[in-house]
Amino acid sequence: MKQMISNRFYICITLLAVLFISSSCLSSDDDNRVDYDYSSDAQITSLSLQSYEDSLKVLPSVKFSINQVASAPVIFNRDSLPYLFDVSNVKMNVATKGASGIKLHLINPDSTYIWDMNDSVKIKSLKHIEVYAADGITTKMYSFRLNTHQQDPDTIFWQNVANNYIDTPTDQVTIANANNFYTYYKIGVDIALSTYSADDGETWTEESVTGLPQNVVFTSIQNDTFEEDEEWYALDTDNNAYLSEDGIDWEEQVTDLPVISIFGKMPSYSVDSVLVVVKDEDVYRFAKTMDFSSLHLLNEIPAGFPVDNFATTTIKDSLIYTAKYLLTTGGVNIDGMQNNNMWLLQENEGEITYIPKEPDFNVTGSSLFKYDDKIYLLTPENGKNVF
Length: 387
Prior knowledge:
8% of the residues lie in helices and 45% in strands. The protein has one helix spanning 2-32; strands at residues 44-50, 64-67, 74-77, 89-96, 101-106, 111-115, 121-122, 126-132, 139-145, 171-177, 180-187, 190-197, 204-207, 222-226, 229-235, 241-244, 250-253, 259-266, 273-280, 283-289, 296-300, 308-316, 324-332, 342-348, 351-357, 367-371, 374-381, 384-386. The longest helix has 31 residues, at 2-32.
């Protein structure tokens, strides 16, 4: 009998213990329960492309910009793909902040589908990328643009926009200045000027030029900007210098030495200046100046260096510290002999260093200019102008 009571007592105690422990565990689970808030961020943080059709491996290097503006988010490549670049199917890698899904919107024909991020994408038909945030509610619709050059960037196209805009001149030169062009020309003994906007080239404005002499050397007329101040300069056939702030009203500037030629802005590691060639007694020297009122003499010019009828342009790349130089070609030297070299000039420790190199094409009568971060040389060949 005692044994039976003891067993029953043990069973009761055990049941009570189990109930107590179970109750404690349930209470503990309730206390430690975590409510998860799913993110409402539906942003795309990066996108890249690759394709087996891309034999030159162009796509992996393409950088996409993502504009997150709420009213019109867009993804696009700032640097256009090469002219005639063409692929149909790509592997698209999209990074998000834990998105729950992505829907692609295509055109031609119009269609939409949930993309599993592994399937290839018909990139030429992709119009929108719609992202669903982790909360399953918030969405963000991006427009997608894959920019490709529509014209060969290595081909410059010309279009005739105006005829007979000035009387037939005996001499002329056109100078680019910001968004305008200045065409100086000579009819008889008169110096005239027409200006027009680079936006159309059709609307011409006649200006009254003052201060330029009849014997001005048209190819010497140039303009540069120094610390936001515009400066125009020119020479006459007697080696006198003329300055202007607007290209219209000019004044002669007396110089210490005869100025033989002006090469324009010489970029420097300190302060940019105008590079000129002067005659110092019987020696032709490089010199630097800011306003021609004073000349800082430098080293003698090298043999064969052009001093008349040359083409020149200034190169200064803010992203490359050492890319500060002046390039000149064509023209004739002090002996009247034709220059066939390209000359690269740099300022280094108080002198002008130079590297001449003869190209395998004609530079006589050529012109130099910068366009789209490249240097172009326009030169006559077999009766045609070629780049």
